[in-house]
Specification:
Layout: H1 2-7, H2 17-39, E1 52-58, E2 66-74, E3 77-78, E4 82-86, E5 94-95, E6 102-103, E7 107-109, E8 112-115, E9 120-124, E10 134-140, E11 147-154
Antiparallel strand pairs: 1-2, 2-9, 3-8, 4-5, 4-10, 6-9, 7-8, 10-11
């Protein structure tokens, strides 16, 4: 009867040679694409935002309306890529190493001044309503294509 022949295990079963060739071509194409992306630089070269902590100190007894922002730890950051941003109460905004922000840098990275742990910047606040300030420390990539907020502080009434 044909049933015994159908259930017989004497015959070897294998993958068709055509399917094997198709799989080999697919693996070759995938490998070529991965290697090409690394060689041509398509897989990276994006700047990664630094990791740093900042401390904000506003002396409520001080009538000058000054806020001190201090780099307290983490990565060293080029001063021309670190910005102080704020709302309209914050009178001094801009790059850490440029006027009107009064900041200090203690070292250099790639020939540019760098902000390291212990460095600080002083920002003037509008004396009329210092409780509503919002200050952000922002890092921007060299191309300006990306940015990251590293720290922020708000006044008690903001």
């Amino acid at each position: 009867m044909q049933l015994q022949k159908l259930l017989s295990t004497d015959e070897e079963q294998a993958v068709s040679p055509v399917i094997g060739v198709i799989l080999m071509v697919a693996i070759t194409v995938i490998l070529a694409a991965v290697i090409a992306s690394f060689v041509l630089g398509l897989g990276g070269n994006q700047e990664v935002a630094p990791t740093a902590t900042f401390d904000f100190n506003y002396d409520t007894d001080d009538t000058s309306g000054e806020m001190t922002v201090t780099h307290t730890g983490g990565d060293n950051i080029r001063g021309d890529r670190l910005y102080i941003r704020g709302n309209d109460i914050v009178e001094d905004t801009g790059a850490w190493d440029e006027s009107p922000v009064s900041g200090d840098e203690s070292t250099e990275i790639e020939g540019e001044s760098a902000v390291t742990s212990g460095d600080s910047a002083t920002i003037d606040l509008d004396d009329s309503d210092t409780g509503t300030y919002v200050i952000r420390v922002v890092w921007e990539s060299s191309s300006g294509g990306s940015s990251s907020e590293l720290a922020s502080d708000r006044g008690p009434d903001a």
